[in-house]
Amino acid sequence: MRRPPANSLHHQAAEMLRQQIFAGELAPGSFVDEAALCERLAVSRTPLREALKVLVAEGLLRHEPRRGCFVAEITERDLQEIFPVIALLEGRAAYEATEHAGPADIDALQVLHQRLQDHAEAGRITEYYEANYAIHEAFITLADNRWLAQVIGDLRKILRLARHQTLQVPGRLQQSLSEHRQVFAALQKGDAAAAEQAMRNHLLAQRDALRELARNHPSRITP
Asked: What GO MF annotations does this protein's record show (predicted)?
């Protein structure tokens, strides 16, 4: 059996590491043990180190000279600075998605929103998060703007380090669902400006939820 090309191996290793970071299997601030990862991922040191460079460039890892790599810790300041920026970008994506959406696209989004509602009603935070992520991805795809997609994608990787935190705030799950309904309702009506504003409001509400969490439960926000 032929081995995958070396560049393919380091891309595969990078993706596996991303998923472990997003799943919390590699905790924020934890040391990246290269020898253990080589064994776990079944790759040699060369593609692993190339993968680590990719994740350092993405901001998911930080490199300390003579010490190695550590999983990035997203701070409260990071979140307060990122959310206004991504609110603008995803708002624009919602605007362009509304302009491009056809009946089949609206039907597909209806299915995703029903799934979101089902998870919210059942209090399934992990499943709600995944459906929420899929909806945001659908809007970005519909926008069909590669520059928006690239910049939003980079910022969303960082925000995934705090993926469940806002949904832990009492009442936030239902509030988030209501915000998504407002965005979708605007898209259904073909009102691009309203969709843009509703999406901005949704992202900024996440920032406000994090502020509340930081005030009431400071130990649950990365210092």
From this structure: DNA binding; DNA-binding transcription factor activity
We report the CATH number of the domain holding residue 60 as 1.10.10.10
- Domain shared by 103 and 32, yes or no: no
| pLDDT number for residue 186 | 98
Nearest Cα neighbor of 73 from 4, 121, 26 is 26
Number of domain units in the chain? 2
* Global confidence as pTM: 0.78
Residue 166 is part of which domain span? 76-220
Instruction: Please give the C-alpha separations between residue 170 and each of 107, 133, 166, 216, 217, in angstroms, as whole numbers.
Output: 31, 20, 9, 11, 12
Q: How far is CA 120 from CA 49, 74, 114, 135, 173, in A?
A: 40, 26, 10, 14, 6
Same-domain check for residues 103 and 154: yes
Which tokens belong to 175? 């509030």
